[in-house]
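G., the chain you wanted modeled:
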Amino acid sequence: MRTKFEVGNVTIHRIVEQEGPFFEALQFFPKLTKELLDENRSWLQPKFIGPKDELMLCIQSYIVKTPHHTIMIDSCVGNHKPRPTRPFWNMMNSDRYEKNLAASGYGVGDIDFVMCTHLHTDHVGWNTRLDNGRWVPTFPKARYVFADRELDYWTTRHRDDPAACPWITDSVLPIVAANRVDIVKSAYAFNDLMTLIPTPGHTIDHYSVHVGKEGADAVITGDMIHSPLQARYPELGMMSDYDSAIAGVSRRQLFGRFCDTSTLMCTAHFPSPSSARVVRWKDSFDFVDA
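Predicted structure as C-alpha coordinates:
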Protein backbone atom coordinates (compact mmCIF):
# COMPACT_ATOMS: atom_id res chain seq x y z
CA MET A 1 0.00 0.00 0.00
CA ARG A 2 1.63 3.24 -1.13
CA THR A 3 1.66 5.81 1.67
CA LYS A 4 4.33 8.30 0.53
CA PHE A 5 4.53 10.67 -2.44
CA GLU A 6 7.21 13.14 -3.54
CA VAL A 7 6.03 16.39 -5.15
CA GLY A 8 8.96 18.62 -5.94
CA ASN A 9 10.64 19.38 -2.61
CA VAL A 10 7.53 18.39 -0.65
CA THR A 11 6.84 14.93 0.77
CA ILE A 12 3.26 13.78 1.38
CA HIS A 13 2.47 10.88 3.71
CA ARG A 14 -0.86 9.10 4.14
CA ILE A 15 -1.79 8.17 7.72
CA VAL A 16 -4.59 5.62 7.48
CA GLU A 17 -6.99 5.10 10.36
CA GLN A 18 -9.57 2.81 8.70
CA GLU A 19 -10.21 1.31 5.28
CA GLY A 20 -13.00 -0.91 4.06
CA PRO A 21 -16.75 -1.01 3.31
CA PHE A 22 -18.83 1.65 5.01
CA PHE A 23 -22.07 3.10 3.63
CA GLU A 24 -24.45 1.62 1.07
CA ALA A 25 -23.94 3.56 -2.17
CA LEU A 26 -27.59 4.41 -2.85
CA GLN A 27 -27.95 5.71 0.71
CA PHE A 28 -24.70 7.67 0.63
CA PHE A 29 -25.63 9.35 -2.68
CA PRO A 30 -29.37 10.05 -2.32
CA LYS A 31 -29.86 10.95 -6.01
CA LEU A 32 -27.87 8.02 -7.37
CA THR A 33 -30.21 5.65 -9.16
CA LYS A 34 -29.77 1.92 -9.40
CA GLU A 35 -29.68 2.32 -13.19
CA LEU A 36 -26.75 4.75 -13.05
CA LEU A 37 -24.97 2.57 -10.52
CA ASP A 38 -25.43 -0.49 -12.76
CA GLU A 39 -24.15 1.50 -15.74
CA ASN A 40 -20.90 2.18 -13.89
CA ARG A 41 -20.59 -1.07 -12.00
CA SER A 42 -17.98 -2.58 -14.33
CA TRP A 43 -15.30 -0.06 -13.34
CA LEU A 44 -16.47 0.61 -9.79
CA GLN A 45 -16.21 -3.01 -8.65
CA PRO A 46 -14.39 -4.32 -6.75
CA LYS A 47 -12.16 -1.35 -5.86
CA PHE A 48 -14.71 1.38 -5.20
CA ILE A 49 -17.82 -0.59 -4.24
CA GLY A 50 -18.13 -3.97 -2.60
CA PRO A 51 -20.33 -6.96 -3.46
CA LYS A 52 -23.29 -5.52 -1.53
CA ASP A 53 -22.93 -2.09 -3.16
CA GLU A 54 -21.24 -0.67 -0.10
CA LEU A 55 -18.73 2.11 -0.72
CA MET A 56 -15.10 1.16 -0.16
CA LEU A 57 -13.66 4.13 1.72
CA CYS A 58 -10.49 5.16 3.48
CA ILE A 59 -10.35 7.34 6.59
CA GLN A 60 -6.97 9.05 6.68
CA SER A 61 -4.86 12.12 7.32
CA TYR A 62 -2.16 13.55 5.11
CA ILE A 63 1.14 14.84 6.46
CA VAL A 64 2.83 17.40 4.23
CA LYS A 65 6.53 17.90 4.91
CA THR A 66 7.88 21.10 3.38
CA PRO A 67 11.37 22.57 3.86
CA HIS A 68 9.88 24.75 6.60
CA HIS A 69 7.02 22.91 8.32
CA THR A 70 5.38 19.57 9.07
CA ILE A 71 1.65 19.95 8.47
CA MET A 72 -1.17 17.49 9.10
CA ILE A 73 -4.27 17.86 6.96
CA ASP A 74 -7.39 16.46 8.66
CA SER A 75 -7.24 14.29 11.75
CA CYS A 76 -9.71 11.43 11.22
CA VAL A 77 -12.06 10.02 13.89
CA GLY A 78 -9.98 9.59 17.04
CA ASN A 79 -10.26 7.35 20.07
CA HIS A 80 -12.78 7.32 22.91
CA LYS A 81 -15.20 9.65 21.12
CA PRO A 82 -18.94 9.07 21.54
CA ARG A 83 -20.44 8.79 18.04
CA PRO A 84 -23.74 6.97 18.62
CA THR A 85 -25.05 7.51 15.08
CA ARG A 86 -21.94 5.88 13.55
CA PRO A 87 -21.32 2.49 15.21
CA PHE A 88 -18.05 1.97 13.30
CA TRP A 89 -16.67 5.21 14.85
CA ASN A 90 -18.35 5.10 18.25
CA MET A 91 -15.89 4.95 21.18
CA MET A 92 -13.09 3.66 18.99
CA ASN A 93 -10.08 2.31 20.84
CA SER A 94 -7.50 1.42 18.21
CA ASP A 95 -3.75 1.87 17.95
CA ARG A 96 -3.70 1.73 14.14
CA TYR A 97 -3.58 5.48 13.60
CA GLU A 98 -0.78 6.04 16.09
CA LYS A 99 1.20 3.10 14.68
CA ASN A 100 0.82 4.38 11.13
CA LEU A 101 1.86 7.85 12.26
CA ALA A 102 5.00 6.37 13.83
CA ALA A 103 5.66 4.29 10.71
CA SER A 104 5.71 7.48 8.65
CA GLY A 105 8.58 8.71 10.81
CA TYR A 106 6.61 11.32 12.73
CA GLY A 107 5.28 11.69 16.24
CA VAL A 108 2.67 14.01 17.72
CA GLY A 109 5.40 16.43 18.75
CA ASP A 110 6.61 16.87 15.17
CA ILE A 111 3.42 18.48 13.83
CA ASP A 112 3.60 22.26 13.43
CA PHE A 113 0.10 22.83 12.03
CA VAL A 114 -3.13 20.83 11.77
CA MET A 115 -5.31 22.02 8.89
CA CYS A 116 -8.92 20.86 9.03
CA THR A 117 -10.49 21.08 5.58
CA HIS A 118 -13.85 21.16 7.36
CA LEU A 119 -15.25 20.37 10.78
CA HIS A 120 -17.00 17.02 10.28
CA THR A 121 -16.50 14.26 12.80
CA ASP A 122 -14.08 12.16 10.70
CA HIS A 123 -11.78 15.12 10.01
CA VAL A 124 -11.27 16.53 13.52
CA GLY A 125 -11.15 13.52 15.85
CA TRP A 126 -7.43 13.31 16.59
CA ASN A 127 -7.35 17.06 17.22
CA THR A 128 -7.74 16.02 20.84
CA ARG A 129 -7.01 13.10 23.13
CA LEU A 130 -8.44 12.11 26.48
CA ASP A 131 -6.15 12.97 29.40
CA ASN A 132 -7.45 12.33 32.93
CA GLY A 133 -11.01 12.90 31.79
CA ARG A 134 -10.23 16.08 29.81
CA TRP A 135 -9.93 16.63 26.08
CA VAL A 136 -6.53 18.17 25.38
CA PRO A 137 -4.73 18.96 22.08
CA THR A 138 -3.13 15.79 20.69
CA PHE A 139 -0.32 17.67 18.95
CA PRO A 140 1.39 19.62 21.73
CA LYS A 141 3.03 22.39 19.69
CA ALA A 142 0.67 22.59 16.70
CA ARG A 143 -1.53 25.48 15.64
CA TYR A 144 -4.90 24.35 14.28
CA VAL A 145 -6.09 26.05 11.08
CA PHE A 146 -9.88 26.47 10.74
CA ALA A 147 -11.80 28.44 8.12
CA ASP A 148 -13.64 31.34 9.71
CA ARG A 149 -17.15 30.75 8.38
CA GLU A 150 -16.80 27.01 9.02
CA LEU A 151 -15.92 27.54 12.65
CA ASP A 152 -18.66 30.11 13.12
CA TYR A 153 -21.29 27.81 11.57
CA TRP A 154 -20.43 24.82 13.76
CA THR A 155 -19.99 26.72 17.01
CA THR A 156 -23.37 28.39 16.44
CA ARG A 157 -24.99 25.04 15.66
CA HIS A 158 -23.37 23.53 18.73
CA ARG A 159 -24.64 26.34 20.93
CA ASP A 160 -28.18 25.78 19.65
CA ASP A 161 -28.09 21.97 19.81
CA PRO A 162 -24.96 20.38 21.31
CA ALA A 163 -26.33 16.84 20.90
CA ALA A 164 -26.44 17.30 17.11
CA CYS A 165 -22.68 17.68 16.81
CA PRO A 166 -20.85 16.01 19.72
CA TRP A 167 -17.54 16.18 17.84
CA ILE A 168 -17.56 19.95 18.27
CA THR A 169 -17.71 19.39 22.04
CA ASP A 170 -14.73 17.04 22.23
CA SER A 171 -12.62 17.83 19.16
CA VAL A 172 -13.06 21.51 18.27
CA LEU A 173 -14.04 23.59 21.30
CA PRO A 174 -11.13 22.29 23.45
CA ILE A 175 -8.74 23.55 20.76
CA VAL A 176 -10.43 26.95 20.82
CA ALA A 177 -10.33 27.02 24.62
CA ALA A 178 -6.61 26.20 24.57
CA ASN A 179 -6.02 29.22 22.30
CA ARG A 180 -4.46 27.01 19.65
CA VAL A 181 -6.57 28.09 16.65
CA ASP A 182 -5.54 30.13 13.63
CA ILE A 183 -8.79 31.34 12.04
CA VAL A 184 -8.28 32.07 8.33
CA LYS A 185 -10.17 32.70 5.13
CA SER A 186 -10.71 29.59 3.00
CA ALA A 187 -8.50 31.17 0.28
CA TYR A 188 -5.62 31.75 2.67
CA ALA A 189 -2.06 31.58 1.28
CA PHE A 190 -0.12 29.79 4.01
CA ASN A 191 3.23 30.24 2.26
CA ASP A 192 4.71 29.90 -1.22
CA LEU A 193 4.16 26.13 -1.16
CA MET A 194 0.70 25.86 0.41
CA THR A 195 -2.50 27.70 -0.47
CA LEU A 196 -6.05 26.97 0.60
CA ILE A 197 -8.63 26.67 -2.19
CA PRO A 198 -12.28 27.38 -1.29
CA THR A 199 -14.34 24.30 -2.21
CA PRO A 200 -17.63 24.89 -0.38
CA GLY A 201 -20.77 22.79 -0.60
CA HIS A 202 -20.02 19.68 1.39
CA THR A 203 -19.85 22.10 4.29
CA ILE A 204 -20.41 25.84 4.35
CA ASP A 205 -16.73 26.84 4.13
CA HIS A 206 -14.85 23.68 3.13
CA TYR A 207 -11.38 24.16 1.72
CA SER A 208 -8.92 22.00 -0.21
CA VAL A 209 -5.14 22.47 -0.01
CA HIS A 210 -2.84 23.16 -2.96
CA VAL A 211 0.69 21.96 -2.26
CA GLY A 212 3.84 22.71 -4.26
CA LYS A 213 4.29 24.73 -7.43
CA GLU A 214 3.01 24.35 -10.97
CA GLY A 215 4.52 21.28 -12.60
CA ALA A 216 5.26 19.66 -9.23
CA ASP A 217 2.11 20.00 -7.18
CA ALA A 218 -0.75 18.22 -5.49
CA VAL A 219 -4.23 19.06 -4.25
CA ILE A 220 -5.39 17.50 -1.00
CA THR A 221 -9.09 17.53 -1.71
CA GLY A 222 -10.71 16.89 1.66
CA ASP A 223 -14.37 15.99 1.18
CA MET A 224 -15.07 17.99 -1.94
CA ILE A 225 -15.20 14.49 -3.49
CA HIS A 226 -15.89 11.09 -1.91
CA SER A 227 -15.97 8.75 -4.91
CA PRO A 228 -14.74 8.92 -8.52
CA LEU A 229 -18.43 8.72 -9.46
CA GLN A 230 -18.57 12.39 -8.47
CA ALA A 231 -15.89 13.24 -11.03
CA ARG A 232 -17.92 11.71 -13.83
CA TYR A 233 -21.12 13.14 -12.36
CA PRO A 234 -20.06 16.31 -10.49
CA GLU A 235 -23.62 17.21 -9.51
CA LEU A 236 -24.01 13.96 -7.57
CA GLY A 237 -24.32 15.05 -3.94
CA MET A 238 -23.85 12.95 -0.83
CA MET A 239 -26.03 12.56 2.22
CA SER A 240 -24.13 14.92 4.56
CA ASP A 241 -23.71 17.85 2.18
CA TYR A 242 -24.55 21.33 3.38
CA ASP A 243 -25.46 22.28 -0.21
CA SER A 244 -24.96 19.65 -2.92
CA ALA A 245 -25.52 22.14 -5.76
CA ILE A 246 -22.67 24.32 -4.52
CA ALA A 247 -20.53 21.21 -4.00
CA GLY A 248 -21.09 20.31 -7.66
CA VAL A 249 -19.91 23.77 -8.73
CA SER A 250 -16.80 23.37 -6.55
CA ARG A 251 -15.96 20.04 -8.21
CA ARG A 252 -16.35 21.46 -11.70
CA GLN A 253 -14.21 24.48 -10.86
CA LEU A 254 -11.40 22.61 -9.16
CA PHE A 255 -11.25 19.73 -11.63
CA GLY A 256 -11.55 22.15 -14.53
CA ARG A 257 -8.52 24.00 -13.23
CA PHE A 258 -6.32 20.94 -12.77
CA CYS A 259 -7.57 18.38 -15.32
CA ASP A 260 -5.09 17.08 -17.91
CA THR A 261 -2.14 18.35 -15.86
CA SER A 262 0.44 16.53 -13.76
CA THR A 263 -1.23 17.69 -10.53
CA LEU A 264 -1.73 14.83 -8.08
CA MET A 265 -5.17 14.66 -6.46
CA CYS A 266 -4.87 13.29 -2.93
CA THR A 267 -8.40 12.40 -1.86
CA ALA A 268 -9.61 11.95 1.67
CA HIS A 269 -11.75 8.87 1.18
CA PHE A 270 -10.88 6.99 -2.03
CA PRO A 271 -9.49 3.53 -1.24
CA SER A 272 -5.73 3.07 -1.43
CA PRO A 273 -3.65 4.50 -2.97
CA SER A 274 -6.22 7.36 -2.77
CA SER A 275 -4.31 9.54 -5.22
CA ALA A 276 -4.62 10.00 -8.98
CA ARG A 277 -4.64 12.59 -11.76
CA VAL A 278 -7.84 14.10 -13.09
CA VAL A 279 -8.56 14.09 -16.84
CA ARG A 280 -11.41 15.23 -19.04
CA TRP A 281 -14.23 12.68 -19.55
CA LYS A 282 -17.05 13.74 -21.89
CA ASP A 283 -18.34 16.99 -20.38
CA SER A 284 -17.02 16.00 -16.94
CA PHE A 285 -13.93 14.35 -15.48
CA ASP A 286 -12.32 11.07 -14.54
CA PHE A 287 -9.40 9.84 -12.45
CA VAL A 288 -6.43 7.97 -13.88
CA ASP A 289 -3.45 6.39 -12.14
CA ALA A 290 -0.76 8.93 -11.41
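The mean pLDDT is 96.

Shout if anything looks off.
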